[in-house]
Amino acid sequence: MNRPPSRSAVSPKARIAALARDDKWFLGGLDGVVWAPPFPRWLHRPGFWDPVHLLQQEVGPGFSVALVRPDGVERPLRRAAPGPRGGEATPGGWRPGQLVARWLDERDVLVEERRQVLPGGILESAWDVPRDFEGHLVGFTAQPAETTDGVARTADGVGWTRTVSDRRGQELVLRVELAGSVSPAWRRITPSEGRGAPEWRLSPFAEGGGASGNAAGRSGWDWIAVALPLAGIDEGPPALRLTLRLASPEPRRPAPTPPTPASPAPPRGDTPAAATWEAFFGDFPQFRCGDPYLDRTFDYRIYGLGLNRIEGPWGPVRHPAIAEGPEYFHVPIAYSAQCHMMEMRWRKGGREAWGSLLNFVDNQKPDGSFHGRLYPERLEGTDFYHANWGDALLAVDDMHPDAAALVRCYEGLSRYARWLTAERDPEGSGMFTVTNHFETGQEYMSRYMAVDEEADVAGWRPRLRLKGIDVTVYAHQLFRALAAVARRLERPGDEAEWRGLEDRGWRAIDERMWSEGAGLFTDVDGRTGERTGVKAAVGFYPLLTGGVDGARLDALLDHLEDPATFGTRFPLPSSSVDDPQFSAEGIWRGKRRNCPWNGRVWPMTTSHVIEGLLRCWRGGNSRGNGRAGALAADMLHRFARMMFTDGDPSRPNCFEHYNPHTGRACHFRGIDDYQHSWILDLLARGFGGLHVDASGIEVRPLPNGPARVALGPVTARGRTVSVEVEPERVSVTVDGERFDGPRGEGLRVRWAS
């Protein structure tokens, strides 16, 4: 039995420490620079030799560190096993904001390295070295000469210009500097042929002396070293820092260097990175229920959002937002922005929640459509994704109303809605067309093959005419949201337009997209007007509308409980188990795919379906609605447990997709901490029971959830709110005033005027 949650507040520092582990290394500065190499080769070497990412651009090598004796010989280091030091209960290892490595020299003397990524694009390796050590702490790197220019000494180290290219061949020019926390003892620049590796013995500096400056021809490596003295340092542990900034941009493509986010001065003994992360965690409520999987999922999700946070401006990315994930996903992406809006509204202020939409509105295309991705240096080759913008807009506005942002988003989404109607439903059917299998964010599925046998080989080319059930629901929810905002803005003409489109969309969903044979909503062939009958998880998305009830609701719930279709151990497969192309392992046409949707569990889809069940449960009192609530709670429990490696409650993860039978993640992809769902929001509303809107609060936790839950403090509409759920009762405190009621009935508290 789980222990009742503690009623005492837990400090952000303690919440971060509770996530500590020894099998992780991802670090970020909460601003768009992240060190999260999926398959690192050099963790056994000090420093950051494996590549770092500035948004989607990979930059590597980074730098390595060596302890060098006065005679120029390296003091060899080997990794020490984790163990207690200085009375710490959880020494060393990784936690959000830092990676501590402990090293032994040839005499078994212990030294400690703390790696962190600081705001402003700074990778820091700080060292706790015994005072009797003599010689130098040396940071060194080998930069590919063909992409490196202007290598020269700076006041505190060595700087250079580096040109990098992303997967599409688009270039970004950076200004890079390797420097120290104290004045360097010496600096060296040596062009060299040979091999570039993070081993001092293989560097040209190991023999001393050497060339200095630019060599003829631009091939090989530019070796750079910065040495800090180990003697006479009183300013704290010496540190080496690699700083990445955008070089001076062209006037037509402004991209100013992002500012360092303001944060309180760190307490004595804390690091700047620790203070920044603690401030970030402190802006989110605590969720405690006594279940280690659920409690840890909530705080681990806060870490994932921080790792992927972007602080603008980075060219077109002018507002703080969340990237979809590490590596080339480390940019704002339209398909996942809806998730970030749902989750970041739980952070005090809601800046990233609004920013996740405002970035796309600010860069809207002339025709009214949105870019699929936003890059720091260009808006070319950005593709397009459908997204549920309407629900996300209303969710953010419920928690953090901002009149100016709402008007800007309304205007932008109105243009987007008119583009969507003109381009994707010119015939006025109420159903909206998918033109390729990538733009839904869900590729490699039978749903596309039903209308085009070569849908999976056409790339991004617009060749399909599939009336998608998912994008039609998104459009319906968008029209509904625009109508609600138009009413508030006193635009009756607009409201009537949007209500008409909303009604037409629901009639299409209800009358044309329900398949009796499948017992599910399905896509429609845009050429023939016939339902495809293909059972996919998107067939549950009409639950989001609140309009599904009766026999149809029962049929959907039957599917979610039936292991022969969607009721797998871990919820829920993206395609039905009885689909001819189903593969729990993600095999499509004989090949394991990076992003298969023919049976894998995608947290994005699971979030949609649990969200739909939650709304269905809150919106009605029939037997089916009660069953929907119980199923939502059950699926949310299993959803959270899936995202732990080997079922170990100390090893949470968040990969792109999972095996629906075993829960095994796609470790072969290496893309952990992928923000493609909104489980934090579902935990807060589902098990914490807290629902906020313009009129007030309702506390109504799902049936069969944890017996006891403590959630708070939540900043909502300028008020401070905390919730306590007990086996029989619930209570909510609003700005110090407490309200109580029975658990099963829901507690409603209206805002004080």
Characterize the structure shown.
Strand 4 and strand 5 form a beta hairpin. Helix 4 packs parallel to helix 6 (389-399), helix 6 (389-399) packs across helix 9 (469-488) and helix 13 crosses helix 14 (679-687). 25% of the residues lie in helices and 22% in strands. The chain is globular and about 85 Å long. Strands 7, 8, 9, 10, 11, 13, 14, 15 and 18 form a nine-stranded antiparallel β-sheet that branches. Mean pLDDT is 91; it is low at 85-92 and 249-269. It is of the alpha+beta class. It contains 14 helices and 35 strands.
Name the descriptors:
9-stranded antiparallel beta sheet; 22% strand; single chain; 14 helices; 5-stranded antiparallel beta sheet; 753 residues; alpha+beta
Gap between N and C termini? 43 Å
- Please count the helical segments: 14
Strand percent estimate: 15-25%
The geometry reads as globular
Main β sheet profile: 9 strands, antiparallel
Question: For the residues shown, what is the average pLDDT?
Answer: 91
Number of strands: 35
Report helical residue fraction. Answer: 25-40%
**What is the alpha-carbon Rg in Å?**
27 Å
Instruction: Decide which structural class fits the backbone.
Output: alpha+beta
Low-pLDDT runs of 5+ residues are 85-92, 249-269
Task: Describe this structure in a few short sentences.
The chain has 753 residues and is an alpha+beta fold. Helix 5 packs across helix 7.
